[in-house]
UniProtKB/TrEMBL annotation:
It is an enzyme of class 3 (hydrolase). This is Glycoside hydrolase family 3 protein. Gene3D superfamilies: Glycoside hydrolase, family 3, N-terminal domain. Pfam families: Glyco_hydro_3.
Length: 494
């Protein structure tokens, strides 16, 4: 491919403007600063870029010294998917916990406080909330990232979240259009498919996006999913019928359309990121998210050159690329000029308040709080890529704070129960699970533990789809740090 390296002509600047790349390190590399000077308008942040709020604020200041209207984006859903608190666990419960409480004002408050914290660090675009209706209980990638399986509930909480986040001056990016909830495949690994007909899609998948648009969501993220009823040939991210005809035309959306990560296998394995990016812009996307796994200048150069070459060959209309770049600049102007709502300092403890309210307790007999240190067995599934395995989860750390001497082990597979019983000895067992209903080995381990030790306490930190069991069963509706604390408080009577 020919390299177009001037970095000064309008076409090349527009091609850079539509990219949202990531990078490695906790300071901005020279290549990124140089690209900002050449027209790059957005940067995506991940857990690898964040060490502390102070460091993050210094990083975003470094970016703004090069370009004062830069969009600094982050994948901060709260709950299981956190970048701001990637090494400690989130101070905010995720969507499923908020849906379990079903108090839209609480959801708005949580999103507003999260937005305030992001804004204080210089972040002005959040790739959240997830508006997916988790209608498929076997979904391996959405689950607790969804407000729930009820369409109306998801719609009202999506709107509340958008309103709260944007009240802090942080643009919301509602995802994953047209809805990733009814999938059994993770698009990080392969192409999911939803075979629902148009009427089901309209009533179920699209309702939360209608609510988000009505609430003024400044951005919408596309999904790498195939929905044959809408487009039998192309995944949503690359589909003009989905992005232009449906989202722009039928739903009347006028804001920024961002792709999900183009390095995800649903796109990269079939089309490649360069070809995929050209097709996405041609279909109606305005910004190309890339950098979850590809985070270097070479990637940015290749994507820029692919877009320029597509325009020069006539494959991609120059006006479409110019329109996309202008939408990016329009959002940058909004973030630079919007005034956060004057609501005082907010409630720093609102995340813990929400996590406590989301807790659901089922006891098979009168429960007496623990006064002696237990053994915590974390029955640990493989984390999906969106969540990652860097972020700690469970109740052991919080129980150790309340009951010093608490010990823990992490177990996976058919040997989990035996290993737990051996390690626990005479201590009371607290078994912590995540989506028991999706993991037969986990259900079998609980069967064996409860047979041997009927007084075992069970804490479900995923979607509580399996029947409640154990001497005490606690459903936290998510694995955020505050969810673990709320559960530990009940177990220890605090």
């Amino acid at each position: 491919m020919t390299t177009f390296a001037s970095g000064t002509d309008t076409l090349t600047r527009d091609a850079l403007t539509v990219l949202q790349p990531g990078f490695t390190g906790t300071t901005a590399p020279d290549w990124l600063l140089r690209r900002l000077g050449e027209g790059l308008a957005s940067v995506g942040l991940f857990g690898r870029n964040i060490a502390s709020p102070e460091q993050l604020a210094a990083l975003t200041a470094q970016l703004r010294a090069e370009r004062d209207d830069v969009l600094v984006a982050i994948d901060e859903e709260g709950g299981d998917v956190t970048r701001l608190e990637v090494r400690t666990g989130s101070s905010f419960p995720g969507n499923h916990a908020l849906g379990a409480v079903d108090d839209v004002e609480l959801t708005r408050e949580v999103a507003a406080e999260l937005g305030r914290r992001l804004a204080a660090c210089g972040v002005n675009l959040n790739w959240a909330p997830s508006a997916d209706v988790n209608s498929n209980a076997a979904n391996p990638v959405i689950g607790v990232r969804s407000f729930g399986a009820d369409t109306a509930l998801v719609a009202r909480h999506t709107a509340a979240y958008v309103t709260g986040l944007q009240s802090a001056g942080v643009a919301a990016c509602t995802k994953h259009f047209p809805g990733h909830g009814d999938t059994a495949v993770d698009s990080h690994h392969a192409m999911p498919r939803i075979d629902a007909d148009v009427s089901v899609l309209s009533d179920r998948e699209l309702s939360p996006f209608r609510a988000a648009i009505a609430a003024g969501s400044r951005a919408v993220m596309s999904a790498h999913i195939l929905v044959p009823a809408l487009d039998p040939d192309h995944p949503a991210t690359l589909s003009r019928p989905v992005l232009t005809d449906l989202l722009r035309g039928e739903l009347g959306y006028t804001g920024l359309i961002v792709t999900d990560g183009m390095e995800m296998q649903a796109i990269a394995a079939t089309y490649g990121i360069e070809r995929g990016s050209v097709l996405a812009i041609a279909a109606g996307a305005d910004a190309i998210c890339v950098g979850g796994g590809l985070a270097d200048d070479e990637t940015v150069r290749r994507l820029r050159d692919a877009l320029v070459a597509a325009v020069r060959s006539g494959e991609l209309p120059e006006a479409r690329l110019a329109e996309a770049a202008e939408r990016v600049r329009e959002l940058a102007r909004w973030t630079a000029t919007t005034t956060p709502a004057a609501e005082g300092a907010g409630r720093e403890d609102i995340g813990l308040v929400a996590a406590r309210r989301a807790l659901r307790l089922t006891s098979t007999s009168p429960f007496t709080r623990l006064t002696e240190a237990p053994f915590v067995a974390a029955l640990t599934p493989v984390a999906n890529i969106a969540v990652g395995d860097e972020t700690p989860w469970g109740v052991a750390a919080e129980l150790a704070r309340l009951l010093p001497g608490t010990e823990t082990g992490s177990y996976t597979g058919e040997d989990a129960a035996r290993a737990t019983l051996e390690a626990a000895g005479d201590r009371r067992i607290v078994a912590v699970v995540r989506d028991e209903h999706r993991h037969p080995w986990m259900a079998a381990a609980l069967d064996a533990l409860l047979t041997a030790r009927p007084d075992t306490i069970v804490v479900e930190m995923g979607v509580p789809q399996a029947p409640a069991r154990g001497a005490l069963h606690l459903a936290t509706h998510g694995a955020a740090r505050v969810c673990g604390r709320a559960a530990a408080e009940v177990i220890a009577g605090a």
